[in-house]
């Protein structure tokens, strides 16, 4: 793909959501995806981009990766911030897997820079292959319809992914053609991590076009369902003092799939608990349909649902 084609595709993605003069935080790791993104963004002169790279301490070479990004960003005329953290020790403290801890910390750092520098959004280099892996990952976790959506080009957390429609192989060809330097992330070659297992052993067996079409249809369906949810809440729910209340009997008259959809919506948007698995939602559902006396449903030592005199009470708090 020619540089002008890349520029036009990405320029269109920007113009659909932002305005000339807007400032962005760009996460760059030093890999081929983010280095190519940084190279192309340098051609868009109507926006302001600030590079943030993280020395995560997961490999001996991580400090070299950060130094490399800083050097290349400077060549292109970008401001670049380097944040040094120790993901292994943080993962241990928080009792998280290494990848989960790294991802959470990465976005936490990006968000801090976004707020500090008054940036409109955080830009990442996720591409179409990442989208396929995300959808498959959600399906393997037993996710519901929402899992089919995968990642959005611009999500509710103001994370912007302008390369989401471009395949990884296109990015590599483009980078080689334009002599864009990058550093290889050797963890991408390992298959003992769930994501990389999907990447190397499962994603290659699935028809990508079909999965992407399913994702588009899921987005349309969820749009219709969300409108129904808003109407149901207005008609049957009471919201006061940070609590959302609805009648158990009315809830149980709904078809099973709508009951689950409501629970997903409530738990995600009112309780702010994300990454819900189907089995986790099933636990909430079973509690609601079986509870007969005053009681609570807790999540990580926090009460999120309660039952009293025929009413389900959802504790609406951040």
TrEMBL record:
Molecular function as annotated in GO: ATP binding; tRNA(Ile)-lysidine synthase activity
Gene3D superfamilies assigned to the protein according to its UniProt record, in alphabetical order: HUPs
Catalytic reaction list: cytidine(34) in tRNA(Ile2) + L-lysine + ATP = lysidine(34) in tRNA(Ile2) + AMP + diphosphate + H(+)
GO annotation, biological process: tRNA modification
Ligase among keywords: yes
Gene Ontology cellular component annotations, sorted alphabetically: cytoplasm
NCBIfam families, alphabetized: lysidine_TilS_N
Protein name listed in UniProt: tRNA(Ile)-lysidine synthase
Species per Swiss-Prot/TrEMBL record: Candidatus Abawacabacteria bacterium RBG_16_42_10
Lineage: Bacteria, Candidatus Abawacaibacteriota
